[in-house]
Amino acid sequence: MPLSTLANKKYTSYLNCKNKENRFLQTLISDLEEIKPSTIKQLAKLGLYRVQDLLFHLPQRYQDKTRITPIGNLQIGTEALIQGKLTSSYIYPGRQSSLFCCLTDNTGSISLRFFHFSYWQKKLLILNAHIRCFGEIRQGAKSLELIHPEWMVLRDKDGSIESHLTPIYPTTNGLSQTTLRYLIQRIINELNTKEIEENLSTELLKFIHLPSLHQAISYLHQPPPDASIALLTEGKHPTQQRLAFDELLAHRLALKQLKLHSYQLQAPVLQASRKLIKQFLTIFPFALTQAQQRVTEEILGDIAKNTPMQRLLQGDVGSGKTIVAAFGVLQAVETGYQAALMVPTELLAEQHLAVFQHWVSPLGIKVERLPTKGNIKARRQCLMELKQGDIHLIIGTHVLFQEEVIFHNLGLVVIDEQHRFGVTQRLALLEKGQGNNYCPHQLIMTATPIPRTLAMATYGDFNTSIIDQLPPGRSPIMTVAIPDFRRNEVIIKIREACREGKQVYWVCTLVEESETLQAQAAEKVASDLNQLLPELNIGLVHGRLKPQEKESVMTDFRVGNIKLLVATTVIEVGVDVPNASLMVIENAERLGLSQLHQLRGRVGRSTERSYCILLYHGPLSKLGRARLDCLRTTQDGFEIARLDLELRGPGILLGTRQTGLISYRVANLLRDQDLLAKVDQVADKLIAQYPHYIPKIIYRWLGEGSRYKDV
Ligand code: ADP
Ligand code: MG
């Protein structure tokens, strides 16, 4: 039986005999009283469906409103709660008038500035009013200042202050912190009389030397005033470490079970005369590199056995992994089986479709991409052909493992750019072939070179193949770092490059994960560039475009109609347009090195000399400079990954997305590496001594909420 179903089934039966508290944790948020339907929708966007999901939805940071700081002791750059009397309040006239106040206590004064204010704000923020404010202290022109602070009028002089640190939760448009806080608070209050059920025995808790789940969860939603904000911000507080431990444990257990489980399953023997491969090689315009030949043999050797292959193919950007995957596909098809290729973005799905159709359709192989749900007729047709075995290779994003997708006989699953997928997605896709008690072979490909311990945590015990050689004739990508006030020079360079028939990427980056903001920024850049370079045909691609729009822009770029492509980081992985040989990356100082390396890998994909311009917004810190220098001087992804870890240092916590490792909810593989050894030991102990705990732990962290979450 498929593992995730196994976990769910056991868990459900287990649930039936559980006490009240657990049933409460499993309650759907929509079944709670007095919750607005709009709130339920917004929570669902965050992957929060059940009470338990809310409890495990942890603050991303905290504010300290538990103490009042005397104005004389304020420090620039920190957030503080202050109170005092308004000693002036006036409206500064102008096109858009603003409200200025001066707040004074017996240790000093600070300015408050409001660039937008309402009638009632003006009425309340008057001379002599007693005010309490919270915000970030900045250095203004004349004095310290707070811009748009949170504020309240104090009715009596002391008014009560918060008894806990104030949590700030990750949220989504339209869902306020107040609503989230209120909801989570409400649940914690209900829980207070009961305990959140522990995942580990007392003995194991002692072994890992971390607090209980209940302690950890309640602490993190309401840290006491003396909690260390520094530790919490770094994610190093023991309560956070406990949850990170649990999450890593859940993944580890899932991977271990996956492995154990697949040992018991048969895989189809994909062994054939290599007729298709030979035919294909006559069409392929290049000779394979030695590294490509070597790993091809490793893969073909594996899939010719009746145990499921579990192989990880690492190879730097541009090293030619796709073709190697194609050999596996050809072998599967020649043996009479189907293959699936799963990719992390629609853009990449489209590109792979074009590449594979070009490569293998002439050999009579039918390649399709799974149409979206909106495209009902085409989708139904595709699903039917897939079920009957008429389609040999199907390409798609994680939609490939939706339940309605049924294969005739899936022999090989290739997952490209694996670091974007979590173990849940892999579990789900593997279920596809298991109807007849067999399991398809699995090849996962990634450009992210990571140390063995991290690889284990991410992929499980996979065999590894490495393409350690680039195709011949590739010269290093000339990389320069230029401050953004020298944009004009960059424009000239673009003009020259396009005049010579080259194509150019302009990548807009924002650290915010909001696609809307990213799209807006990219639109602005595109329209600016249109004015500066009116002679060029400029395209724009970002995550807010409809799939067809994205595809048509990418096609125009691929065939050369578009000379300059303005893009967000949607093009980060896998995109292959060999004629593009200049890339400009804006705000390069804000991105992780591995991500920059991935992005840069979109150029330098032919024998043409390629350039990458890292535009940064100065002044650069010493570390910032060292990071850009590293990219300027190094092309080797392994070396860059190593330096990335080294230069990151404590205090700089970039999201895991930027490092190319999979994203967890709480854990961060880089930060929490030290936990991994114990995670492994505890996983083994659970398997040996407490197997009945396992489905529950897996479910808790990899349950339905995370299962179909978009990657
Ligand atoms: P990645 O490993 O980043 O996925 P791709 O598979 O997209 O790289 O290959 C990058 C480019 O190199 C493609 O345009 C591909 O056709 C080309 N390529 C692959 N193998 C060779 C080779 N042996 N010689 C020359 N070019 C190659
Ligand atoms: Mg690729």
UniProtKB/TrEMBL annotation:
EC annotation from Swiss-Prot or TrEMBL: 5.6.2.4
Superkingdom per UniProt: Bacteria
Record GO terms (molecular function): 3'-5' DNA helicase activity; ATP binding; DNA binding; hydrolase activity
Keyword ATP-binding listed: yes
Catalytic activity: Couples ATP hydrolysis with the unwinding of duplex DNA by translocating in the 3'-5' direction; ATP + H2O = ADP + phosphate + H(+)
Domain Helicase ATP-binding: 302-467
Membrane-spanning segments: none
Keywords: ATP-binding, DNA damage, DNA recombination, DNA repair, DNA-binding, Helicase, Hydrolase, Isomerase, Nucleotide-binding
Domain Helicase C-terminal positions: 500-646
Coiled coil: none
Name of the protein this chain belongs to: ATP-dependent DNA helicase RecG
Gene from which this protein is expressed: recG
